[in-house]
Each structure stands twice: as structure tokens, then as C-alpha cells.
Amino acid sequence: MIVPRRVALRSLFALAVTAFTGGALGRVATRPDRPGSEGARDPHAFDEMYRGHRLLGFSGPGGGPTALVDGRPLHLMRCADGGWVSPIDHYESCPTPLAATRAAVDELGTARLSPLAGAHGVPTDPTGGSPRGVHA
Amino acid sequence: MVYTRKNQRDLTGAERRKFVAAVLELKRTGAYDRFVRTHIDHYTADGEGRLRIAHMTPSFLPWHRKFLLDFETALRRIDPTVSVPYWDWTRDNSPASSIWREDFMGGNGRRADLQVMTGPFAHATGRWTITQSMTDIRYLTRDFGRPRDPITLPTPAQLDAVMRERVYDAAPWNSTSATGFRNALEGWAPGRGNERFRIHNRVHRWVGGLMLGGGSVNDPVFWLHHSFVDLIWSRWQQRNPGAAYLPAEPPPLGDAQYRKVAARHEPMAPWGVTPASMFDHSRIYRYA
């Protein structure tokens, strides 16, 4: 199976970020050292406790927002209306990545995210299959 | 031979038992969870610059028609007398409706953790453990009517408005399409509060729990919901015999939807069938 570099990077990144502690990630999220943007704050950075869960946000490898809930990746998907949805709640298009992460936590209760929540609907072929799918 | 999909409220006790037994058998073999996974793997939102085949897209209806047919075929290999009943949520629109009885779908989740405690799909039966999901929870969850932000099921009047659409779908072929039958039925809408959740989407939100997210197929009521969505499409097709699937041709290079949607004769993953080939179900099943 050929896994596109983008997908492979995403998987590696997800593994890498889950290996860090929350404290280390907090520093990553707020460090203003992106190349070519001296002093610029990561536009997707957030770091807060919400309903007993630690929410961290930062720019992923592709520049899009990445969210962690208690250290576990939450896939944020952009909608055509400009909003964001998560795998926990497919129907609530939220105005920001943080709002979508909070909406997911609202549904989460005491549960923890599974690995599937980190990335789903990832296509590898022109008809839209997934590298993790039973049909790939 | 053409078989019939019935309204779940009209099933006999024996028909209810046979449907539940076939679903549980499919779960036991592991085949059910592969259906859950297929649905998860084909969810793509429409602001991501990627091909969308199952949601927020014209092929929402033919993709789910094929998905249901595959599921139904698997059930009928177990019991050839079974078909997927439909849940008319404009009529059976309350937690007290017979669909939620102990001998069929079971009831609402309990308040503390939304766990479904009644019926054949309650975790304690030992026959319904969730394996393909967005969380580590292993039991079925429901949250009827979303009490902390209450929502009602779609009304007959709201469904009538959908049926008055005369064109299958319209540019930009996504969740922001302001006209067209597909998006009206799928149920994406602008506005505030619960106005944003209509028809198909609203039902997912009303059931709540696992039905709200990528793992919605884990709730067997998913199939009864989508059987009714398919019935609505079927009735709309009868009323509008000249209204073909749109777009007929792939959006051209330069169009924002270039390579993002399946046109009439393009293949839909994972099966490779086209929307056009799913247009007529009359030689396979009919609705009672």
C-alpha cells in the first residue's frame, strides 16, 4: 500500500505529539519561533482547561489547526461555511477550531478520544478511499 | 425478486425479532463493524479541498443508497426474509414511540453517562460492544432531544418543503448549496441555533450520543433513519421523473469543486459504482 507523504507525516506527527507531556506541548504551542515569522504567535494556539479536559491547539504540519484533548489528537475539519467540525460532532459547524474542540468535549463527558478521532476520512486514491479503510 | 422495505411501526413482533436477530448475527461475525468503519473512513468535510463522496456532496444520497443495499444484502444472507425497515420520524417523533421498545431498538441513554440500558443493543447483553468509535466508550449512547439544548424531530411541514425542490442539486454542490433537493434533505442550513440542523442532520442530532459523530453507524437506528431518507429520495424521484442526478459532468478545471465531487457517471468509493447506476432501485426493493 502506498501511503502519501502527507498522510505518513500526519501519522508520524500524531505519534510524536502524543509522546510528549502536556507541559512540553504547552511550550510548543506558544513558542514564537516559526521560520519567517519572528515573534509571530501561532494563529492556532490555545491552551486551556475546559470541563476537566486539557485542550491544546497549534498549527499542524500542513499549517492547519491541530487539537489535542488530554494529549489525544482530535481531527478538526474545515467546512465550506468557514466553520469547523470534529469527528465527535459532525453536525455543529463551529466558528473556530477552539469552539469545535470545546463542542467535542461537551459531548465527550468522561470518555477519552480513540485513535480514530485523530484523523478520519483520509483519502489515498482518486475515488476517495482511506489508507486505514477495509477497502484500501 | 423485488422485496419490500416496511415502516418499522407496521412490523409484526416476529418481523421485529428477525431483524434484530440478523443485525446481532452480523455484529457477532465482525461484519457489522466493517460497515461502521467504511462510514467513518468516507467522511470528508467540504472546506478541506478534498474529494467528498458521502457527505456535504451531491453523492450523499446514492452513496448511502449503496451503503444500505450492501448492509441489507449482508442481512439477507443471514435471513432472506429480512429487509431494512424505515423510521418515519415525522410521525414516530417521541421517546415513547414504539421504535424504542425493548424488543426493537431499545430506549434512550441514561442521564449519567448516556448509556443505553434497554433492548437488544444494551451493552449488558454482551452482544453489542462498540469497537469502531471516536472514543474509548464501549457501549451504545443516546441523548434523545438533546435536553441541554433541546431540539425536536423534523415535522411533516418541514419535509413537505424539501419535497417542493425541483432540481436534484445545485452549485456549489456542498453544505452551502442554497437550493436543490439534496442539501435540503441532507439538512445543512445557515442561521442561528437549531435552525442550522434540518431534516437528515436534525435526526442525527435528536438521537444524539454515537449518532452525532463519525461512529453513527454503531447505533442500529442509523439504518432505519437512512432507509427513510432513501424513501424520501425515492418518492421525490417519482414526483420529478425528469430530474436527473446533478452534476451531470465533473466540474471543470478552475471550478472550486474541480475533483471534489462525483458527477453522474463517476465512480464512488469504495465500490466504484456511479451515482447514475444507483438512481433506480425498483428492480431490487420497493417501499411499502
Automatic annotation (TrEMBL), chain B:
- What residue stretches are annotated with the Tyrosinase copper-binding domain? 55-72, 219-230
Q: Does the keyword Metal-binding apply?
A: yes
Q: Which UniProt keywords apply?
A: Copper, Metal-binding, Oxidoreductase
Q: Which residues cross the membrane?
A: none
Cofactors demanded by this protein: Cu(2+)
Q: List the SUPFAM superfamilies hit by this protein, alphabetically.
A: Di-copper centre-containing domain
Q: Which superkingdom?
A: Bacteria
In which family does this protein belong, per the annotation?
Belongs to the tyrosinase family.
Protein known as: Tyrosinase family protein
